[in-house]
Amino acid sequence: MKCPEHGVKLIDVPWARKGSAFTLLFEQAALTLVREMSVNAAARIIEITDKRLWRIVEHYVGQAIEQFDLSDVKAVGLDETASKRGHNYVTVFIDMERRKEPVLFVTSGKGKQTVAKFSDFLKTHKGDPSVIQEAVCDMSPAFLTGIKESLPQAEVTVDWFHIVQTFTRALDKVRKREGRVKPLPKHLRWSVLKRGDADHLTTNQLKALAELLDQGLDTATAWRIKERLDWIRLAKTPRAARWRITRFIG
């Protein structure tokens, strides 16, 4: 307001956040777009700079994080992912017991220091690292060390995806090595790397797989080992799973 006697006066209004140059409705629209696309793309659509949009995002994300109550978190999952080209990583922590909006914490980097950061985050949001009973992760030695140091009561469960990934990579090494000395069926690569059933394979891939099994090659043996993992996963009880693992190794 501009008063001839008292000059310019700023007042709070119900339809805009204090200190913001935008209405609440505009900010709501901006956040809706950011959930569906990159900040740069959303900024182009609503015709503001990406820096101004980042300020909106950081305000509301920070406000939401301040309200976190992590006192009931007992099982967490963690994994790193590349955020940009090259060796730029972020590590994401999720609540394994929460189906809706499970993400708890995201930090730059990977390795045991990220687990230490998560432990500190827990403490500042009503959580307790000693209450965490289970941590689900890959077989990274850095993660395993970080969990042992920062989440001392947590039992480690190796994520099923990473178990299958390890076997799949080993299978692919066998295929490549054998392919250098013996002719392998066409369309074989994805035949053995994907799940071995008709729902996941094309007609050509199914034919290539059948031809591989008929020839009795090392790749066929490696494929059978990888496919046998599902038999362990489908065990009904821990005791049955232990028995199946023993049979599998044998």
Would you summarize the structure shown here?
The protein contains eleven helices and seven strands. By secondary structure, the protein is α/β, with parallel strands linked by helices.
Describe the structure.
The protein is α/β, with parallel strands linked by helices. It has three domains: 2-66, no CATH class; 75-158, Nucleotidyltransferase, domain 5; 161-249, no CATH class. Helix content is 50%, strand content 14%. It is built from eleven helices and seven strands. The chain has helices spanning 24-36, 39-46, 50-66, 112-123, 141-150, 160-179, 188-193, 203-215, 218-227, 229-233, 238-249, and strands spanning 2-3, 7-8, 75-84, 88-95, 103-108, 134-137, 155-158. The strands form two sheets. Strands 5-4-3-6-7 form a five-stranded mixed sheet. α2 packs across α3 and α4 packs parallel to α5 (141-150). It is elongated and about 95 Å long. The mean pLDDT is 91.
